[in-house]
Prior knowledge:
By secondary structure, this protein is an alpha/beta fold.
Amino acid sequence: MSAALAAARSSGTPAEPMIDVTGLVKxxxxxxxxxxxxxxxxxxxxxxxxxxxxxxxxxxxxxxxxTTTIKILTTLLRPTGGTVRVGGLDVVRDPREVRKMLGxxxxxIGVDGDLTGRENLRLIGHLYHLPGSVVRDRVExxxxxxxxxxxxxxxxxxxxxxxxxxxxxxxxxVHHPPLLxxxxxxxGLDPQTRNAVWEYLRALxxxxxxxxxxxxxxxxxxDQLCQRLAIMDHxxxxxxxxxxxxxxxIGADLITIRLPQDExxxxxxxxxxxxxxxxxxxxxxxxxxxxxxMRAGHGGATxxxxxxxxxxxxxxxxxxxxxxxxxxxxFLQHTGREMRVEExxxxxxGPWARHRRD
Length: 358
Ligand SMILES: Nc1ncnc2c1ncn2[C@@H]1O[C@H](COP(=O)(O)OP(=O)(O)OP(=O)(O)O)[C@@H](O)[C@H]1O
Ligand SMILES: [Mg+2]
């Protein structure tokens, strides 16, 4: 091993980011030139870095380039252009050394159906040469977190899609690497398991000072877990920063007005929409199934004015709310579209089925 490699592997320079990406491009199909038919520019020139010990996220809708990026960072895919350094090493030049540092739980199933759930997890621990007692403890802990204890002694081949998904995630978590990549770790999980996984990841990050790179389609997941995130759309980073920074960048609160669901509802809603549009400081007024929502620079004061106008027009109001901006609005502002993803029902429609509300 070269001196530079040894230095990079032992700890690297503290100032150097754990992940450093410059001008990354990935084109599928063709010869790297995106003029032809059937050519997809999945990652379109992105720059970002992740500091050591940071919990960093890629948030983006289907097809925005999250998996492509994570596969390049984990050496599973070669970039078309740009440079990627992980732990101070170039992923194209030193893929083997890079792989030694990282753990990866991907979107596809990587479990052995003939082995039981417990055996699958233990196997991973032994492959990484962890001491037997550590393997036992971690495997039991993960089976618990992933709610697989009861099914632990059944062959994984008999598991439902959701159970396989959980086992797959567990495989990426057994060996506690210094750098952990998770591709949509909680897609397809029920809310209760999702919360348990969040808790587990937070604890890993805190106690082991792990660097974690996660991709997600869930605003709340990014908001809850990530210290910093990049929002992806069509292969580009459209916004980056900490969740509070990104929200502050919107510079507006969200006002929601719910109207009584009586026979006059639709007429009242149309009227409320028109009235709200005339209020200074209000922008982005939209109807939804229970009323109208809008943005306002000064939520509280503007709400008072909106309500005054509604009252003058004899429109009855059921409920009002003013909320600071959400990551959803950050996405909307940067892309002109909403990125709502509904909860997934793993058993009825497959573990990765996603349902858009819009
Ligand atoms: N092997 C491939 N060959 C051709 N096109 C591909 C390939 N893999 C991905 N793509 C395309 O590249 C784009 C980005 O895909 P990618 O899987 O990186 O997105 P994603 O953000 O992970 O989406 P999802 O949330 O659905 O997992 C998409 O348009 C996709 O169809
Ligand atoms: Mg993906």
